């Protein structure tokens, strides 16, 4: 996974795979999903990321198990 943040447009682009994008779906006014030919998620665009998602406080944590 790779994340690109474009400060000039306050846009975050989350890359989940390197597959070819064949369709883009608008989820809301600021969220777009890019899908491959099988309908799998390739990337997601979040516009106004700083304003809508507080992107400056982003963190990542991998959890080995989820408690029941």
Into which percentage range does the β-strand content fall?
A: 35-45%
Distance between the termini: 27 Å
The share of residues in helices is under 10%
For the sheet with most strands, the description reads: 5 strands, antiparallel
Number of alpha- plus pi-helical segments: 1
Order of strands, main sheet, comes to 1-2-5-4-3
Question: Radius of gyration, rounded?
Answer: 14 Å
Mean pLDDT: 90
Please report the total strand number as a whole number.
Answer: 5
| N to C succession of SSEs | EEEEEH
Principal-axis shape equals globular
How many domains, in number, for the residues?
1
Low-confidence runs: none
Could you provide a short overview of the structure?
This protein is mainly β and 68 residues long. The chain contains one helix and five strands.
Please characterize this protein's 3D structure:
This protein has one helix spanning 49-53; strands at residues 2-6, 11-15, 23-28, 31-35, 41-47. With 68 residues, the chain is mainly beta. The protein has one domain (2-57). Strands 1-2-5-4-3 form a 5-stranded antiparallel beta sheet. A hairpin with a 2-residue loop joins β3 and β4 (31-35). The radius of gyration is 14 Å and the shape is globular. The relative contact order is 0.24.
């Amino acid at each position: 996974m790779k994340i690109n943040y474009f400060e000039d447009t306050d846009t975050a682009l989350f890359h989940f795979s390197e597959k070819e994008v064949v369709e883009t779906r608008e989820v809301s006014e600021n969220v777009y999903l890019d899908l491959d030919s099988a309908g799998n998620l390739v990337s997601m665009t979040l516009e106004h990321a700083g304003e809508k998602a507080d992107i400056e406080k982003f963190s990542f944590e991998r959890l080995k198990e989820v408690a029941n």
